[in-house]
Amino acid sequence: MIGANIEVTRTSSDPHQLFGLGNVVWDRGKAYVAIQASGALGANDVVIIDEDGQAVVASVTTSASARGDRAGVVLVDFADNDYGFAQVFGPTEANGLTSCAANVPIHTTATDGHLDDAGTSGAEYVDGLVLTTAVGGGGADAVAAMLVFPTIGATI
């Protein structure tokens, strides 16, 4: 991919912003979408990406009205209004809550940017994102995951 540095964020005043919000770029079998952070985002956070390319941390609150919106994982920290990329296809690491099982349906939680398999009333499934490694019992953590163009799904 020419001109995209996946692990760097840029400010809105940067004259070298090369990709339009929502544009998808490919690198070594992985796909990334150009986003602008709507609030701070942490590395490995699961995010919701609206039709304008604005990304917010995925949570029960932010997913409530987001059915059908894209989801992805940011690889680095973003400050509010930074530009960068969220991964939407291929192997990565994503934040999960304590004891979240591998290879099961997962959904948003009350913890920003983290997913879980334990049913939470009002949470939405994240279709197309699977944790391929279970989260240990020691606390929330980033673990191996697979993305296949995830979207926010049905409410539990």
What's a quick, concise take on this entry?
The chain is mostly beta strands and 156 residues long.
Please give a structural write-up.
The protein has 156 residues and is mainly beta. The chain has one domain (24-155). Helices cover 3% and strands 42% of the residues. It has one helix spanning 60-63; strands at residues 24-27, 30-37, 46-49, 54-57, 70-74, 83-96, 107-108, 115-116, 124-131, 141-155. The strands form 2 sheets. The chain has a 5-stranded mixed β-barrel. Strands 7-8 form a two-stranded antiparallel ribbon. The chain starts with 23 loop residues before the first strand and ends with a strand.
Order of helices and strands: EEEEHEEEEEE
Overall tally of structural domains: 1
Q: What characterizes the major β-sheet? A: 5 strands, mixed, barrel
- Strand portion: 35-45%
Oligomer: single chain
List the total number of helices.
Answer: 1
Mean pLDDT comes to 91
First CA to last CA: what distance? 38 Å
| Dominant shape | globular
For the structure shown, list the relevant keywords.
156 residues, mainly beta, five-stranded mixed barrel, globular
How do the strands and helices of this protein lay out in sequence?
Elements: E1 24-27, E2 30-37, E3 46-49, E4 54-57, H1 60-63, E5 70-74, E6 83-96, E7 107-108, E8 115-116, E9 124-131, E10 141-155
Parallel strand pairs: 2-4
Antiparallel strand pairs: 1-2, 2-6, 3-4, 3-5, 5-6, 6-10, 7-8, 9-10
